[in-house]
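TA notes, week 10

Several of you asked for a full example with nothing omitted. So below is the full record: structure tokens for the whole chain, then the designed sequence directly under it. When grading your own attempts, check the secondary structure regions first.
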């Protein structure tokens, strides 16, 4: 079934929900860098009710939900979106309450913040909240957005563990079920900055039918109709297509051994480029930067 809703996945930036260090000043968090790049603004433009949208921010993945929630309220308010509330759901029981269900039913946009994607999927997966999100995404003019962990958990299959440096060793990358808003892709975030290309290669080699999506920081994808992905934001998105793999050693080598892969296909997307998940085609569009963080689309290529 073709979804009526829209899905936005964002690579994140310095996500204090996941990687809080003692050197960071948490009173002035800067993890919502994608706000400056216009991704939130594009979300509001794409929402059926625009600035009148009712937004629920779900901070389940974050270790610092109060700080994260306040920053999202502030960022949406700066875009003249004033109906913004935070759902700090910390248990499966909380995801099944009538109050939670009622709020999700009234929302126009639900934003899943960064943090720990396994925590997000383990708490929300299979709950009444999760069921309603999936139903509304299919049936309504409804938007689900996720950044960092919220983006990684959006697909049916989800990377939840695996170091960047050892990703191409058999068994290093751990994959489990995500929230299932989109099929046949697997998503990794903070992709360019944290050198995670190896673990996306491994994930695709282990299941070549999935398209690997590597979202850089300040990069996002707007997904409409379930299969049209448009690059939004200033960062880069890397796509890894395993359908043309000729040979791999992934099923022969021992656990902990390096993995070989022959003939992976890689695409690089930047702002306004589109990728068709059904046809597996990339359309490159030309944009010109007219000032810091502001881009103007000037041409579509045939």
């Amino acid at each position: 079934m073709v979804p009526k809703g829209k899905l936005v996945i964002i690579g994140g930036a310095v996500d204090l929900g996941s990687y809080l260090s003692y050197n960071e000043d948490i009173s002035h968090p800067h993890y919502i860098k994608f706000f400056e790049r216009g991704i939130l603004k594009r979300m509001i433009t794409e929402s059926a009710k625009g600035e009148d949208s009712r937004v629920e921010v779900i901070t389940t993945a974050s270790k610092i939900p109060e700080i994260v929630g306040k920053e999202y309220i502030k960022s949406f308010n700066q875009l003249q979106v004033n109906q913004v509330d935070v759902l700090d759901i910390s248990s499966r029981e909380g995801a099944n309450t009538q109050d939670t269900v009622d709020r999700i039913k009234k929302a126009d946009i639900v934003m899943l913040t960064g943090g720990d994607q396994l925590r997000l999927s383990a708490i929300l997966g299979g709950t009444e909240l999760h069921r309603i999100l999936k139903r509304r995404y299919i049936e309504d003019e409804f938007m689900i957005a996720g950044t960092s962990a919220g983006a990684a958990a959006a697909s049916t299959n989800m990377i939840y563990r695996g170091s960047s440096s050892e990703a191409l060793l058999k068994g290093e990358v751990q994959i489990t079920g995500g929230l299932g808003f989109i099929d046949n892709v697997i998503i990794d975030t903070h992709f360019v900055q944290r050198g995670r290309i190896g673990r996306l290669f491994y994930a695709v080699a282990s299941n070549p039918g999935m398209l690997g999506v590597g979202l850089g920081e300040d990069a996002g994808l707007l997904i409409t109709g379930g299969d049209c992905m448009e690059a939004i934001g200033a960062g880069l998105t890397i796509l890894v297509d395993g359908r043309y793999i000729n040979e791999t050693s992934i099923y022969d080598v021992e656990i902990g051994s390096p993995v070989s892969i022959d003939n992976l296909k890689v695409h690089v997307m930047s702002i306004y480029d589109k990728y068709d998940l059904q046809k597996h085609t990339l359309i490159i569009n030309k944009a010109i930067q007219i000032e810091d963080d502001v881009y103007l689309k000037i041409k579509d290529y045939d």
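Confidence is low (pLDDT under 50) at residues 14-31. Use that as a sanity check on your answer.
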